[in-house]
Amino acid sequence: MAQVPQTFFDALAVRTWCGLALGALGRAREEIDAINVYPVADGDTGTNLYMTVESAAGAVEAVFAGYELGEEVPTLADAVRAMAHGALIGARGNSGTILAQLLRGMAHVLTEGDATHIDADALRLALRHAADAARQAVAHPVEGTVLSVAAAAADAADAAEGEGDCGAIARAAYEGACKALAATPGQLAALERAGVVDAGGRGLVAVLGALVEAFTGETPTAFDVYAPMAGPVGHARVDAVSDARDAGCAEPAGGPAFEVIYLLEAEDASVDRLRARLDALGDSLVVVGGDGLWNVHVHVDDAGAAVEAGVEAGRPYRIRITHFGAGDVHTGGERPPRERVQRAVVAVVPGEGLAGLYTEAGATTVLARPGEPPASGELVDAVRRAHAREVVLLPNDADLRHTAAAAAEQARAEGIRVALIPTRSAVQGISALAVHQPDRRFDEDVVQMTSAAGATRYAEVVVAERQSWTMAGICQAGDVLGLIDGDVAVIGSDVTATAETVLDRMLQAGGELVTLVLGDEAPDGVADRLEARVREAYLAVDTVVYRGGRQGAPLLIGVE
Question: What is the pLDDT of residues 37-54, one digit of tens each?
């Protein structure tokens, strides 16, 4: 459906842009992956850009969701900050990290003052600041990459000064980017040998095309302008890239063997020292962020040293270390592949305690920190880490069903058989994992696990953050809410008393086993009180208690 044109940049335009950019990268992901030969021919640039924008779009949607119950809408600054922060914490790979800095650079201009919207001149300045900020974030900028494309987009926007509204500026930037992209093979030998344009630059063209559509409602049609060969990327060009990878022409063999990425909480002065340390360790160094939070990306031979440098600078987390594959241009030789196991379980868990429990049961886990749900890329990474021919995926959260489905599709495209069981709570995942038998036929195992999860009612006891309407009435900030199967059923003032009421309502329908998962914020004695309640009022019902750690909710309850 066509977008409604608008002449200025406001919060709604940010939301629209993110959604359109995600769709554009989703359609172009495979093509961009196929032409990825620089800096490493690992075929993941399109996927990394998609995951980065997915995180940015999710953060913007979360801001809008917070305003849904009232008449107000987010400010431009709210939406832009969310977009930049989401991209920063979700940035993947070299290209995704640079895109995050481009968005952050735009945010510096778009969040100045308290304006509800900005005009064409401010957008032009934002594009210029974005290009400059991205170049400064790269330790050793290389022409013929996304940096060149971003700079050309900003130059074209500058040349269009005074020519019209935001749509005109966006279109000028897009057309400038297209022309610059077409020139990248002449700037970078690896691209010329493979007969392709820069993959990161191609992704930026898609993002800028989405910006044009957000303002004008029209999808740009000049896509073939970027192609250095006749027609868009097709089989012949993909074959050329494959030949180039086989020949190891993207970069000399013997380069760094690991990609290391992590988020870092650190002061600016510490980050300056970190840059110097990492620059001496490897290449493809990009450090983006600010205000105490940074995203660090580097290619190194000593992954441990890169992480240790982060520890010395501050607090690194969400650490991802990828070994470039066998026969890769950075490894210079074949290694015998590790044998795949037949079947594995991958589960999203809300706290460290449950992560340990699931791991002991043989599952590969993805930790969902409070307020930071995992992106589809993290789930795909976990599926890969499981190194199995067959994978059962447990999202353990109703809000993750689309994310998990996207991850499952990506994994299937890589030849892994994946079954997604729509678990909506970690306690349903526990029930599914309890009946998992890897030596059973895959379909039978999935049916049994699905049945066990479906037979488990789930609840959580949480503290309300704001006033809102619920199925049980109006709650105030600080009220204790008891949610059963996702809906608010009880509003109280005390965690233990509310939990007792919730448990009674759940057991009225029967049950044989109660599972209690205590978060760090659960009051002392709540488990003893609930266990005593079950013993006194519900004969032949057993209770099991787990410590969930920092899981966001003081208490999770399962009844099966």
Answer: 887 776 778 888 988 998
